């Protein structure tokens, strides 16, 4: 069944290529000897000439494109300080001192971790029973 589909697709593709090869664009008239060039008057030649663009050296082109540099100015006098909107008649009141922070309550230190391997940590922190599966796995894996 698979072979038949593949063969059919291949034949359809070949037929499409054959049909597209048969369709062509009709040819134009056969090329003949070139026609003699027409004599142009100088007036026609002047109208049909394209302008020739000549590039100037880079530095001259940049100087021509950039605006002229402004003349140096004399330094301006610093502005006068602005007067206060409301003159102070009396000094500001002193700031109150901040209240002392409350004392930190005493927190007991955590119990030190006993042991130096995974099994000891499991027994002390994990609450393993001596006959639990976890304890048996540790004894089998680490011999403890």
General description of the model:
This protein has a domain at 116-144. The protein has 144 residues and is mainly alpha-helical. The longest helix has 21 residues, at 2-22. The chain has helices spanning 2-22, 42-48, 58-65, 118-125, 133-142.
Write out key terms for the chains shown.
single chain, 144 residues, mainly alpha, 5 helices, 38% helix
In DSSP terms (H or I, runs of 4 or more residues), the helix count works out at 5
Helix content: 25-40%
Shape: flat
Pattern of helices and strands: HHHHH
Mean pLDDT: 75
Number of strands: 0
Distance between the termini: 67 Å
Low-confidence runs: none
- What radius of gyration results from the CA coordinates? 50 Å
Query: Largest sheet at a glance?
Result: none
Our estimate of the beta-strand percent is under 5%
Q: What structural class is derived from the secondary structure elements?
A: mainly alpha
Kindly summarize this structure in a few lines.
This protein is mainly α. Helices cover 38% and strands 0% of the residues.
Secondary-structure blueprint:
Elements: H1 2-22, H2 42-48, H3 58-65, H4 118-125, H5 133-142
């Amino acid at each position: 069944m698979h072979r038949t589909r593949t063969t059919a697709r291949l034949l359809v593709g070949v037929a499409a290529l054959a049909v597209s090869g048969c369709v062509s664009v009709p040819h134009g008239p056969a090329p003949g000897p070139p026609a003699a060039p027409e004599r142009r008057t100088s007036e026609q030649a002047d109208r049909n000439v394209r302008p020739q663009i000549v590039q100037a050296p880079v530095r001259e082109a940049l100087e021509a494109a950039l605006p002229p540099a402004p003349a140096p100015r004399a330094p301006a006098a610093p502005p006068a300080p602005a007067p206060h909107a409301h003159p102070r008649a009396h000094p500001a009141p002193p700031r109150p001192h901040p209240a002392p922070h409350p004392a930190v309550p005493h927190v007991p230190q955590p119990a030190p971790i006993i042991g130096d391997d995974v099994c000891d940590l499991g027994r002390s922190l994990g609450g393993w029973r001596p006959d639990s599966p976890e304890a048996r796995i540790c004894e089998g894996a680490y011999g403890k």
